[in-house]
Write a structure and sequence with these properties.
With 444 residues, the protein is of the alpha+beta class. The protein folds into three domains: 4-55 and 111-191 and 292-371, FAD/NAD(P)-binding domain, CATH 3.50.50; 197-288, Alpha-Beta Plaits (2-Layer Sandwich); 386-443, no CATH class. The protein has 13 helices and 21 strands. The strands form five sheets. Strands 4, 5, 13, 14, 15, 16, 17 and 18 form an eight-stranded mixed sheet that branches. The protein has a five-stranded parallel sheet with strand order 7-2-1-11-20. The longest helix is centred in the last third of the chain and has 28 residues, at 349-376. The radius of gyration is 22 Å and the shape is globular.
């Protein structure tokens, strides 16, 4: 048996997956369709690469376990560890979260910076080879399992790369449905919810002396029904900031700096707008509209190709407002490693692959529910379910309580950072404090 694993896609999910597989296969090939940039800038074909990305604390834990050298490398370029409670301004609607030590570490880096560091570390893993300009044209079956990927290389020549496992980590541009069609497999059910949010991000040079009050991130979140915009400012080690505005239909800004500033002025909390006075844009405004929640239910297919699995945005993607994407990708790669340790891929390639897709669906269930419940509230033509309305009502009360309760605040941060299960926010002692939260806390 060829003990080679082939990872299709060399972005964030593909790199983390390659590191996981390097501990379990003799050789790991990572096939990237484009070319990696020489500098930490957005990759071609990754539309969301220009937008703000947040790696939640749970995702950072997974990365630092897989890449023990990563924290020191981030420190060396000025991306140092900070505390989420003291170094992030978080406002939901008009509810200002208190500035208290949370004991939850965080670092702020753009996605291109983080991917560049991961590429450098993965490239040093002896069993991993990164291949650029390799386009996967099709999967080749041998009986019930995938045996090879038909690939076109940089010279235009086609070849069949054989392997014992193939992992689709190509993200939202993955041609996995076309591959399944060609192999005679059914297409999956697709669950989707799009509240119509649109993103716009611009790099700025702050005015001389401007600062984020010692913070590295300011976030003002929308809250239905009245506070309809989200704005975020992230401070980077080079002294520049990234400003992101998130809007709903009918309120999308023009692609101009003046329009972005006006959107920040209309936020429920004025802090980010005040910090942007006198700032200078360093480039164009980058819009991003493809933010619908979408979930392909590969786990429900009766037939599935053996020795082939899909993860990341190719399977499930979320509205980025809650920053779950990179963390879910890291957890998915970790889950794949754990799954392979428990399954006999050689003897039961179909069953092993199907069971992974089902386990992956279970991993997606909770973040999917949280993301879609919140987005559903914003859809005027789609009646919100009783559960959606109850969730929104409870969250409003919870935020009122969190604003004035240090213990609840710490619990809330740990849940938001995916370190703890949301059930911690529904314990009987918590319910009492939430239900009797003082209304004045709602105004922060």
């Amino acid at each position: 048996m060829n003990r080679r694993a082939v990872v299709l896609g060399g972005g964030f999910a593909g790199l983390v997956t390659a590191r996981v597989l390097a501990d379990r296969f003799d050789e790991v090939l990572v096939l990237e369709q484009g070319r990696y940039p020489d500098q930490p800038v957005p990759r071609d074909g990754v539309a969301q690469g220009t937008q703000l990305h947040v790696l939640l604390a749970r995702g950072a834990d997974v990365l630092f376990e897989l890449f023990p050298e990563l924290p020191a490398r981030l420190d060396a370029i000025g991306i140092i560890e900070r505390d989420f409670g003291t170094d992030v301004l978080q406002v939901v609607g008009r509810i200002r979260m208190p500035r208290r030590v949370a004991g939850v570490p965080m670092r702020c880096a753009t996605r291109p910076i983080l991917e560049a560091e991961l590429r450098a570390l993965v490239a040093r893993v002896p069993r991993v080879t990164l291949l650029q300009d390799h386009t996967v044209e099709a999967l080749v079956m041998d009986g019930p399992r995938v045996r090879a990927a038909r690939v076109t290389g940089p010279d235009g020549a086609a070849q069949a790369l054989e392997g014992a496992l193939f992992v689709d980590a190509m993200g939202r541009r993955s041609p996995v449905l076309r591959w399944l069609d060609a192999l005679g497999f059914d297409r999956p059910e697709v669950e989707s919810l799009d509240a119509g949010f649109r993103y716009a991000t611009v790099a700025v040079q702050p005015a001389p002396g401007a600062a984020l009050d010692g913070r590295i991130l300011m976030v003002v979140m929308a809250q239905a029904p009245d506070h309809r915009r989200t704005g975020a400012l992230m401070a980077l080690p080079d002294g520049t900031w990234r400003a992101t505005l998130v809007t709903l239909p009918g309120e999308h800004p023009e692609r101009s700096w003046a329009s972005i500033l006006e959107g920040f002025r209309l936020l429920a909390c004025p802090d980010p707008w005040e910090r942007l006075q006198g700032a200078t844009p360093l480039g164009p405004v980058h819009p991003f509209a493809d933010v619908a929640n979408r979930r392909r239910r590969f786990d429900r297919l009766a037939r599935w190709p053996g020795a082939f699995v899909a993860l990341g945005d190719a399977v499930c993607r979320f509205n980025p407002r809650f920053g779950q994407g990179m963390t879910i990708a890291a957890l998915s790669a970790s889950l794949l490693g754990e799954h392979l340790d428990q399954q006999d891929l050689d003897r039961a390639p179909v069953q092993a692959a199907q069971r992974f897709q089902r386990r992956l669906a279970s991993l997606h269930d909770l973040p999917w529910r949280l993301a879609t419940s919140d987005d559903a509230i914003w859809l005027p033509d789609r009646p919100a379910s009783l559960l959606d309305r109850a969730t929104a009502w409870y969250l409003q009360r919870l935020l009122a309580a969190v604003a004035g309760d240090a213990d609840l605040n710490a619990r809330f941060i740990r849940v938001a950072q995916m370190l703890d299960h949301p059930v911690r926010l529904a314990a009987p002692t918590v319910l009492r404090r939430v239900l009797f939260a003082r209304p004045r806390a709602l105004e922060g």
